[in-house]
Design brief:
366 residues, alpha/beta, 7-stranded parallel sheet, globular
Length: 366
């Protein structure tokens, strides 16, 4: 099989985990723990190759990707420290709204925008995507980067490369954007990556369990804390609207009757610096079972946030490659429904899984 050539916008913790994982799973004798698919449509994790990268952090721009993924403020767990040099240097991207103003209040560690170097133009990004041979662009920008995400989506369209939108700016689930990718026959998977076993998928499965067991869910909350740059970024509540909408819709979609807004609260809650890339979810569900008798469930989930997302993205990349091989463009509805919190079409998880397996096998087009 040929290599899957990817470009990445945003060399943060999530990109670090993904790139570490590509190297980690090169050893085919190793038991493939932590993968949903070892072989997906003929492609294995080590078939993925980074050929272009963009960031705006002075500690990353100009460095080999293999070095940049370990540069601060990245703080995810290092499970594969010996990532060899890629020969690909991180290029200066476009700032726009990619950095929240409040970040400068947290000291030199977070005042990281490159100074004295011209930001990338759309023409420069498009040229890099084309010259590098990238087949798809992965968006890993911070939550709330509405203009910056649209900028890179435009670049993908103009360069003719597929897009995997891992964060909650709605591109694949926006009919106008979806139509543009459809018209150019360019695959897109989005929006907002659903972790391998994280807060959202756990909440969805439990909500579905309530439904299937005849328990009336009356109210629920999901509170999340973490200490990575993403959680710090989300202290600016004005950047959180799409994130809350994405996570809330993901849970509401499995209920036969949606909860009233005052009875459901889901979203990032606070930044705790010493947690680093560890994310802690506090989940509570209150309901009524037989005889209208009340019950409640409380759960605490602790996961390393970025590896949890990389385990899903590594499959999204390979599904996107299958679409390219098959000449399929537009929104990949089945993989998106399984991999993303806010897909264009929400399916129950068991159905989304089955449709994705059919897509991989080639018995379902999208």
């Amino acid at each position: 099989m040929t290599k899957i050539k990817i470009a990445i916008a945003g060399i943060g913790n999530c990109a670090s985990s993904l790139i570490q994982g590509i190297e980690y799973y090169k050893n085919e004798e190793k038991e493939p723990i932590g993968l949903m698919h070892w072989d997906l449509g003929g492609y294995k994790p080590n078939d993925i190759e980074v050929v272009a990268a963009f960031d705006i952090d002075a500690r990353k721009v100009g460095r080999d990707v293999a070095e940049a993924i370990f540069a601060p403020p990245n703080c995810t767990v290092v499970f594969c420290p010996d990532v060899p040099a890629t020969g690909v240097k991180v290029r200066m991207g476009r700032v726009l709204d990619g950095v929240s103003d409040h970040m400068k209040n947290y000291g030199e560690k977070y005042t990281f925008v490159v100074r004295g170097e011209e930001e990338a133009t759309k023409e420069a990004v498009v040229k890099e995507l084309q010259d590098s041979g990238a087949e798809m662009l992965l968006n890993y920008l911070p939550v709330g980067s509405e203009a910056a995400v649209r900028f890179y989506a435009e670049c993908a369209l103009e360069a003719g490369v597929a897009l995997i939108n891992n964060m909650p700016v709605f591109i694949a689930s926006n009919p106008e954007w979806a139509k543009r990718f459809e018209e150019k026959n360019i695959p897109i998977i989005g929006d907002d990556i659903k972790a391998q076993l994280g807060a959202t998928i756990t909440h969805r499965v439990l909500a579905d369990l309530f439904e299937k067991r005849g328990v009336k869910l009356d109210r629920t909350y999901q509170l999340n804390t973490g200490g990575n740059t993403d959680f710090l970024n989300m202290l600016n509540r004005s950047r959180l609207a799409s994130k809350r909408e994405s996570k809330t819709d993901a849970v509401q979609s499995v209920l036969s009757k949606k909860l009233e807004p005052e009875n459901i609260h889901i979203g990032p809650s606070d930044y705790v610096a010493w947690q680093k890339d560890n994310k802690v979810c506090f989940l509570r569900m209150e309901g009524r079972l037989f005889g209208d008798v009340p019950m409640n469930l409380e759960l605490r989930l602790s996961v390393e946030d970025s590896p949890n997302s990389a385990g899903v993205v590594i499959d999204a990349i390979r599904c996107c490659k299958l679409a390219l091989d098959r000449g399929i463009g537009g929104v990949l509805y089945s993989p998106a429904s399984y991999f993303m919190k806010h897909p264009a079409v929400q399916y129950p998880d068991a159905e989304a899984y089955q449709k994705t397996e059919e897509f991989i096998a080639g018995t379902r087009e999208r």
